[in-house]
């Protein structure tokens, strides 16, 4: 294990307390190509995780800061396979932001919206080393993203 993991942050955007916005990462990317994930990336220039997550969703989807209300940080996730330490930034996303999305196809293949109910009902399996895997008609959600979603589904705001 590398003692200097790559620090990164993702935005976990919640719409109307009932949906999550995720992305399918471009297959051109060096890290995690083609995976379903939350918008995010590497922390640069001494940014905070919040600053990184907001910068990244803007770079990937052109979603402006004014549409984002940060709630707080979730527990970080370490991915030993790629040596990433991911800090999830939980936020409310104003649904009006969906009308202004412009996908940066160098980084994102498509935008995916999952309802909390849909995620709760997806078949989940635990695979050693990958935590949870969610299987859906939109694709497979696994690794850090699945772990973050699993943690999120336990929050009382979604009950």
The H-and-E topology, N to C, reads as EEEEHEEEEHEEEH
The CATH architecture name of the domain at 6-115 reads: Alpha-Beta Complex
Calculate the mean pLDDT score and round it: 88
Could you tell me how far the N terminus lies from the C terminus, measured between alpha carbons in angstroms?
Answer: 38 Å
CATH topology of the domain at 6-115: Nucleoside Triphosphate Pyrophosphohydrolase
Please report the total strand number as a whole number.
Answer: 11
Report the CATH C-level class of the domain at 6-115.
Answer: Alpha Beta
Describe this structure in words.
- There is one protein chain.
- This protein is an alpha+beta fold and 159 residues long.
- The protein has a domain at 6-115: Alpha-Beta Complex (Nucleoside Triphosphate Pyrophosphohydrolase).
- It has 3 helices and 11 strands.
- The protein has helices at residues 49-61, 116-121, 143-153, and strands at residues 6-15, 19-25, 36-37, 40-42, 68-73, 77-79, 84-93, 108-115, 123-127, 131-136, 139-142.
- Strands 1, 2, 3, 4, 5, 6, 7 and 8 form an 8-stranded mixed beta sheet that branches.
- The longest helix is centred in the middle third of the chain and has 13 residues, at 49-61.
- It starts with 5 loop residues before the first strand and ends in a 6-residue tail after the last helix.
């Amino acid at each position: 294990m590398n003692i200097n993991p790559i620090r990164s942050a993702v935005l976990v955007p919640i719409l109307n307390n009932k949906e999550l916005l995720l992305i399918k990462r471009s297959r051109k990317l060096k890290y995690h190509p083609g995976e379903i994930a939350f918008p995010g990336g590497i922390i640069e220039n001494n940014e905070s995780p919040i600053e990184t997550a907001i910068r990244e969703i803007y770079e990937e989807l052109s979603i402006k800061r004014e549409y984002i209300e940060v709630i707080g940080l979730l527990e970080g996730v370490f991915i030993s396979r790629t040596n990433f330490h991911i800090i999830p930034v939980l936020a409310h996303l104003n649904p009006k932001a969906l009308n202004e999305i412009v996908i940066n196809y160098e980084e994102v293949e498509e935008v995916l919206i999952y309802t909390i109910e849909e995620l709760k009902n997806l078949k989940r399996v635990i695979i050693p080393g990958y935590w949870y895997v969610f299987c859906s008609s939109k694709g497979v959600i696994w690794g850090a993203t699945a772990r973050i979603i699993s943690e999120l589904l336990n929050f009382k705001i979604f009950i």
